[in-house]
Amino acid sequence: MLRIFKLYLSAGMLFLCFGLANASKLDPDSIIEWWNIPYPKSFDVSALKQQNFIRVDGNQFVDDKGKPFTFRGMNIASPDKLIKQGQWKKSLFKELKDWGVNTIRLPVHPIGWRMSGKENYIGLIDEAVLWANDLGIYLILDWHSIGYLPDGLFQHPMYKTDIQETFEFWQYISARYKNVPTIAVYEIFNEPTDIGGKAGSADWLEWKALNEQIIDLIYAHDKHVIPLVAGFNWAYDLTQVKAHPIERDGIAYASHPYPQKAKPNPRTKEAVFENWTKVWGYVSETYPMIATELGWVKEGGFGAHIPVIDDGSYGPWIIEYMEARNISWTAWCFDPEWSPTMIHDWSFTPTQQGKFFKQVLQSYN
User: Fold this and answer.
1) Class of domain 46-363 as given by CATH
2) Exposed (0-12), middle (13-18) or buried (19+): which is 275, by Cβ within 10 Å?
3) Which residues form the Glycoside hydrolase family domain (predicted)?
4) Residues 193-207: pLDDT tens digits?
């Protein structure tokens, strides 16, 4: 046994001596000067036009003068997808402005954030800020994951993240864009769900505590932004808020009330409204709300899938419901591939729901 130990010791010393002898032969240019990496810089707000900060006042959003404000707009596809397809350009934002939006929701997929590299992705978000600010549009920045973050289980690999990465994302973002009025809302997590037990077991008190930690982190850098918290069942169910609301000031709640989420029988407008009020709409009586995803496609249409299939009656219903309760909204999605789509192509030919929402948005102007 002693002999074997001596052999290992001799081999180790030989390896160490070899390493030391060859250390000086390393190419100095191959060494990364980690000690000279600069600290992240905040966005230069002097490059922006004057734009009101939007804040929370009771159960509504208001501008700098206390005038009520409602976010109304569209989702677009992730910036890294759009730049890959040659569609990431200011003219896209200009088209949305012509449709009547005052808000654009930017989904950032965790996989895209990692694969693009945060420096490259920040460059895209910087462009979005400049374009939106120039056009008088607000942005909702959304960490676009689906699953139950505390369990680390997700619906698809594109949504895979973890608590550490999520904290680091919001730390970086809130430091980068502090005091930037154009990014009005941070949507902390897109669609929390345990996928019917396939992603663990969602617990509201656990989810509440995690969101409060992230809000504290965001506020440590920037108190001018509005954190947005989603409920369970793919961001549809906010029933737990009644007993256990988020205990932080200045926040709002998100819902994704797609048409097949409400399942009354018979399916009348009154019955659907009753379901919406019970599950999520009641929150708007106390807190500001944004339906950050909504939309539909007819059965058999492009990308038709549960829960977005509808005959078209949903459109007028959801607008009537939200307007009566001063609920903000951003419809999904101003992209010809991500269903339910607003456009058929990059000539911006509107789909059925695209025509509807375009008409609604333009009516406010």
Assistant:
1) alpha beta
2) middle
3) 62-336
4) 999 999 999 999 999
